[in-house]
Here is the input.
Amino acid sequence: MNKKIIFAAAAAAVIFFIFNFITGIFLDFEWFNSYGHSGAFWTLFFTEFNVHVIFTIIFFLIFLLNIGILRLIAGRNFIRIPVQIRSMNLKILQKPGLIVFLIIISAGLLISYIMGSLASSFWKEILLFINRTGFENMPVEPVFSNNAAFYMFSLPFYKFLYGWILGSVILLAFFSGAFHFFNGTVVNDYGKISFASEARSHLSLLLALFSAVYGFGFKLSSYSLLLKERGKFFGAGYSDVNSQLFGYKICMILCFAAAVIFIFNIFKKSIRIIFLSAVIIIPSIFAFTVVIPAVQQRFFVVPNELDRERPFIENNIRFTRSAYDISKIEIVNFKNEASLTLSDIEQNRTTLNNIRLWDWKPLQQTYKQLQELKPYYTFMDVDIDRYMIDGNKVAVNLSAREISTEKLAQQTQTWVNKHLIYTHGYGLVMSRVDTVTPEGLPDMIIRDIPPKSSIGFTAERPEIYYGEHSNGYIMTNTAVTPGEFNYPSGDTNNYSVYDGTGGIKVGGFFKRLFFALSLKDLNILISTNIKSDSRILFRRNILDMVNTLTPYLMFDEDPYLVLSEGKLFWIIDGYTVSNQYPYSTPYITKSGKKINYIRNSVKVVIDAYNGSINYYISDNTDPMIITYSRIFPTIFKNAQSMPEDIKSHLRYPETLFSVQSSILLKYHMQDANVFYNNEDLWNIPEQIYAESRIKVEPSYLVTKLPDEQSAQFIMMLPFTPANKDNMVGFLTANCDRENYGRLKLYSLPKQSMTYGPMQIEARINQDAEISKQLTLWNQKGSQVIRGNITVLPINSSLLFIEPLYLKADTSEMPELKRVIISFSDKIVMAENLNAALDIMFSGSISSTEDITEPSENMDSSSKELIKQAYDSFQKAEEYIKNGDWENYGREIKNVKNILSRLNSM
Here is the structure.
């Protein structure tokens, strides 16, 4: 092949690589800079770049030093050219020594670059080490008396440094061995390997270096014992502290002694010394680090395991509870008296009016059928939050109506449509969690396009440019006519021009060229619709945004939408995590990440229209977020600067709550004896959802707990004993501002049994009337979907509520058709929650009978029913005088239900 063609191809490849690298940096810098975080970009960039360069130089200097020492040892015989190569008389080998030297230097540069690249991937450990802070409010570990900061910030850096140096020594040894082999100073003569004197000296030097570095590794291994996986508990145990640590000290001394011997052998040049040292040291290391600790564990610890391991189990319990922040949980006794009356129900109407009857999965399907309106709209998720409605705290479901350009008709999926016209979603849907229309559909608070509200909520800026979608980049303020598609309006469409601050101005030719190259789209450069003041909005998926801006944090995979002062915002919970907290048992997240420390230290608020990102520190006691805020001072803000209305919508995150609940299953046991024997191990209960058996999920509720003065927005999850279905307690987390983050574990009486969710499910299946009705529905071309069961604490009693949805085989729109409630030994199924509660607590109809069916067994007399109707009517009159239409409607509905039952007697 022509040399010019080869050279041109190589040059083109190099130019392409460099240009691709530059355009990638350009795109990231412009994006960071558009948010005012160019400082954070350069911190991330130069940390990686500088680490790469510094460690490349360090390795290359070590490499040159290795070559220099070899030259010093070998003298003029540094490079030996085999006779076979010299006899070839190749023109290129007229100066063979120079050629070999250049090859060595080139190989050294390549290896140095690789070692620098490996080091740059540890930029986070380096930054945390340099900017480390103390864990002053955390317990000090009892083995080495180190603050947790040593394990979280310093030890990872030392491990990186040790691994990099050890890897460098091993690479030098491999390279040196290859050099000696090709140079003829190491010869394989019919299976017998012989070493020249310079090779022996060089090998001794490398072994001395390896032994010294390896010796320091035993010191790091000592600290790592506190992060050791064990059978009964996590962290260092009796044999680790009393045998393994001693073994590591002996091995460290042996390695340093071996290094001294190998240095001596540089001058002695004896292979026998090397061989004898290896024969003595390697078995000794195995004996002191494996055999002796194993013998002590088997014959001294195992026969008396609980007594020997008790203090170490207590360490594991204390540090695990600290790492997951569950040591602050308050224990409250819950009597579960099962003594609710109709009067109690009336007094807790705020709670009962906020029961989540609509699960997000069937509700999302219903939203899609009723409110997507056009094929290109989509609801990615359904969130739950609370809003003040008529002076009451009300739980609602809401979802953003986002656009999906992939759903455009195939013939309309042009570049102009996907990037210039169909640029944003529009509006949201909101419905109460507890109410249902007569048709079994959600009771909409906000609906349609443009958004219409039945209670006066307004969305002044309903356009959604940033969200959970996976659409690509878009261009705004372009010359395309009539503008960006805003929303459908009758036979025509409404168009708009973007008026926000999101994105980056395209600017002149060269900037457009860079955008075109960075995004690999020539249309950006050649489209006549793009002007100099047009804006390009890319990286619009909100999770992609926060992961790019702050890759060192872990984020909740379920962002939620908030309507605040007429604008739409996304809130994402950010976590600081680590797997280096001493004595703390690890947890595997859904994404497969292994952690043993977590804090919800950041609340991220993203404007759905402008894309502005604000990070607010929500936990000032977390040393990790304090350290990150030192490294990136422009990113994090104080929580006090968060808008007040946004504060009212903060929630205790489900991910953190789930992690803490999982850890609590075992680590609620704080007595070492009980913990060791797993005497009180818990499980997260199961339920029947649709037709499958699944774990109960944490649920958000507005409820008044027995020891609280008013209704609170909380998250709740029940617990059952291991391998049993009865409930033993439930955990709650307060979400409201005044008590945010307050965790309470309500313990149920141990002397009596409390039904658990799966036992309630079994009783529903065994109920003749309910079972017959479910079978009938499933046989008429429809499918019954059993919803999530809610365990609701009221006063000192527990109420179980399960919604039933009906979905026709020919439809994807589930309807809420029945509500099942269980209290004490009774089960009721009715058309809605109020009717079910009325039946359950008035005692007028048998517990398993639907309100639409005639009743044959009445427990209360007609006079009692008439009195109840009269009382409800009087309440209705009082409500109408005060203009309280919501409670007026409820009381009138109650009168109607009572009269219907009287009519059926």
Observations:
- The chain has a mean pLDDT of 88.
